Sugar ABC transporter permease (Paenibacillus marchantiophytorum), 292 residues
Amino acid sequence: MNTKRIYPFYFLILPVGIYTLLYFTPSLFSFYYALTDWNTYNEKMRFIGLDNFRDMLKDRALYWEYITHTFEFALSTTLLKNLLGLSLALLLNEGLRTKNVLRSIFYLPVTISPLIIGLIFSSVFDPSHGLINNFLGYIGLESWKHAWLVDVKFAMLSVVSVETWKFIGFNMIIYLAGLQTISRSYYEAASIDGSSKWQQLIHITLPLIMPAITINLILNLINGFKVFDLIFVLTKGGPGNTTEVLNTAVFREFSSGRYGSATAIGILLFLMTTLIALSTLSLLSRRSEVSE
């Protein structure tokens, strides 16, 4: 008896229809609006072709700054979240008695709203009464105290640290899932052959959890390029333009009533994110095939 059940094709009509209505159609319209002068100052919307993108090139220094900050944030948070998440996963994959409690504790920040986290860390980084500066003063490191969120040297670093703290647990869980699929017999055989822990990590663990590495890298890169809420709550893009990224630039253009220009910046971000994500996926897929 055939245990497989073939569902009718029309079961797809509703989900595909909802996806088309709420995502695909607005996305197509956004490409059109990026080619117009849609704004609050003119009654009629005119088609202007690539003028919005040409304006970005004219103000190249400013937009290059936005792009640079976006890349800095995405790449640094991706690297930190993966390194720390993998380290925690390796630690909690061992036979610790409290490993289940620790997993829950490290994953908890993922469930908290970015708005709430932003408000909490605005207080933590407060230069006068913040937890960090108070602690530094308590242990006698007065010279290390800074106005973390309004100092151009530390603003981006502060935002990156908060983003990393929030999502370490997410990366840890994915790496744990990958680690638990590896048979202990590989490590036992390697130990008999005299392999060190480092050699086992490089030649056994990392190649076998490559799917988990791929997932974490792609998701973290995409989320890094799309960042908005955390930066807006903590620094609003400041001080100056120090933490301004493409999504905060989109917000400012929309707030100023320049909808066509804002949509063009959003399209630029979409194309950039898609290109980086697909390139990374292709590179990791090739490395995975070579390792196999």
In short: The two ends are 37 Å apart (CA to CA). The chain has a mean pLDDT of 88.
